[in-house]
UniProtKB/TrEMBL annotation:
This is Ion transport 2 domain protein. The keyword Flavoprotein does not apply. Keywords: Ion channel, Ion transport, Membrane, Transmembrane, Transmembrane helix, Transport. GO terms for molecular function: delayed rectifier potassium channel activity.
Amino acid sequence: MVARMTASSSASRPIYLQNLRQFLVRVERGQDRTALRLQAAFAVVDIAILAFFLFGPYLRAGPTYLIIDYIIAVWISLELIARALVAPTWRIFFRRFMTWIDIIILATLLFPDVLFNFAFLRAMRLWAIGSSPLLQHGLRRAGYAHLLDVVRALINLLVFLFIVTGFVYTSFFYNRPGEQGFVDALYFTVASITTTGYGDITLPGTAGKLTSVVTMIVGISLFVRLAQAVVRPNKVHYPCPQCGLQRHEQDAVHCKACGEMLKIPDDGD
């Protein structure tokens, strides 16, 4: 019945909406040259949005800050509309984690003076790059497909670093002049994640202590995950058709879990 409803709803859409949706699906999930170029362009925009947040302390005193802020808000609004068109149903659209992250980011851009404490969530845009097919295809083309797990673990660590730095900055050091507040937040975050703990910069109150505890625990976990990805033997991602095991040796002929015959393509395929 769901398939019938989906087919009937898609059939009732105008032709131009169906063509637009097919194009957006191709951009989001496709791996042809045009789709990958567009994904790369969107990744550059995501990095630029993150850079705007990082350099925000230098711009927020002038009118340029609000101009760029609202331009980014329009861009994210268009992305949300595009993702809504691509999603099979509204329920699936609103169940996606990045949908709510982008909605919160959009709110921080539209009301920067009220919701500045949530601006650190803009770092999650970098995490979306690591989850896209662009990263896997780019590493394969460059001959570094075996480093996919390492790069994704590194991206997760960087995203966490930026999120914690942004949270500490907007919650504790936002009123410090110029770049001093952001640098202090970054310094505290790196010292906490690496468990160096110099103690020259600390967060006040109970909220500061809880923030430090969470930063150290999660930061160490991500460091361990990155170390495991570095020292782990190189394997390829290829789901076994019988048992679903995802990782296999590069020259594997049979699945080591169930013995199913595998047909793992070469990197050049």
